Amino acid sequence: MKIAMVGSGYVGLVSGACFADFGHDVVCIDKDETKIERLRAGMMPIFEPGLGELVAQNVRGGRLSFSTDLPSAIEDAQAIFIAVGTPSRRGDGHADLSYVYAVAQEVAESLKNPAVIVTKSTVPVGTGDEVERIIRESGTSTKFAVVSNPEFLREGAAITDFKRPDRIVIGAEDEWARTVMTEVYRPLFLNRAPILFTSRRSSELIKYAANAFLATKITFINEMADLCEKVGADVQDVSRGIGLDNRIGSKFLHAGPSYGGSCFPKDTLALLKTAEDFNSPVRIVEAVVKTNDTRKRAMGRKVIEALAEAGAGEPRGKKIALLGLTFKPNTDDMRDAPSIAIVQALLDAGADVVAYDPEGMELAAPMMPEVTMARNAYEAVTGADAIVLVTEWDAFRGIDLQRIRQLAAQPVLVDLRNVYNPDEVRSAGFHYTSIGRP
User: Where are the beta strands (DSSP E) in 21-93?
Assistant: First the structure.
């Protein structure tokens, strides 16, 4: 089957490469000529484990190609995926659908053969209806259908998630569209991946509801961590104790600074706006968004308090070393990363901030011009008055505690991911602060 993937960002590139690996003939399309030239040269625009190798393998096999020419690229495609960005719109938090609608218009003007148009982008309820209207009102006589097929990819594990999904959600309104989409995902039948066919609007809402629920779990356990600190309990015990209940599950119950990234922040906001538009407020999600935003800067204050508790004094003029900047490990994504608010809180308090991240510093540097970027973790902690673990990269899990204690100016370690064993850290001579642990 020939597939056209419009948009060669995170979702489009991962999806296109995986479809090609299934044996489909895939062309990834993007208006950014520089991006397409770099992709043709084997240079990835994002860091995602295994993606470069997967792309190269399928380009060599002749199953994956890249183009800036949408009309020719979609000419023989049986499925045309829209995988462009839907960022939060400035000013009101609504999802910006201008890119989606622009693609729909261009597809409508170029459609010559029957095709299913698939919205892979995360879009609010009713977007598929508008895409269908745009194409129908273009006057095309070519047979088409519009389908919703949201992605559920975790950054850092996207290829595995695509090839071994928990489920595939397809919102289709007619049998022909279902048949085409079944053929698209036929290679996954061997993995017995469940395909859930729904209405188009249900499919669109499933994506937002799933992300809002996961964001709620993260925010809930973070609030429990705060309570644990007050009452002398251990949030890791609490998390395990409730996570062993099959009705709750253990995933997304790890206390930390807050959620971030490309999905949860914008999708919870977009869900709130959808609920407002339909006069059906979602109060729980409102509280989640507010609590998460407040928590990010509170983590900066936590570092300042740790300095004071350790007798290291006020933060002004102190050197604070941050280990990790990206919102999670195994990605270079800095969008809505907790580190941004933490850094700002420390800078506002007069501290000097130095940081190291295995993959995120290139993107982080323009966002944090006052932060010194180190070449490695040990350089970052040299002369530091406090060391703060922000992102739980594997490289930081096995860091030599004795060595960093000798390199640091003062023995203050703030672990915002609960990576380290408190007894081991304290035996290394550190004043240790973590999240939700006595």
Answer: 25-29, 64-67, 79-82
Based on the residue annotation, tell me whether 28 is a catalytic residue of this protein: no
**Active-site entry in 18, 28, 228, 263:** 263
- The answer on 213 and 194 residing in a single domain is no
The Cα 305–Cα 147 span in angstroms is 52
pLDDT tens, residue by residue, 224-265: 999 999 999 999 999 999 999 999 999 999 999 999 998 999
Could you tell me whether strands 352-356 and 144-148 are parallel, antiparallel, or unpaired per DSSP bridges? unpaired
How buried is 273 (Cβ within 10 angstroms: 0-12 exposed, 13-18 middle, 19+ buried)? middle
The total number of structural domains in the chain stands at 2
* Residues of the chain where predicted confidence (pLDDT) is lower than 50: none
> 192: domain CATH number?
3.40.50.720
- For position 134, what pLDDT does the model report? 97
Chain-centre distance of CA 296, in angstroms? 17
The reported pLDDT for the residue numbered 187 is: 92
pTM above 0.90, yes or no: yes
User: Where in the sequence is the domain holding 438, given as residue range(s)?
Assistant: 200-438
Pair of tokens at residue 51: 């993606």
The CA distances from residue 323 to 258, 296, 311, 366, in Å, are: 16, 16, 22, 18
Distance CA 117, CA 329 (A): 34
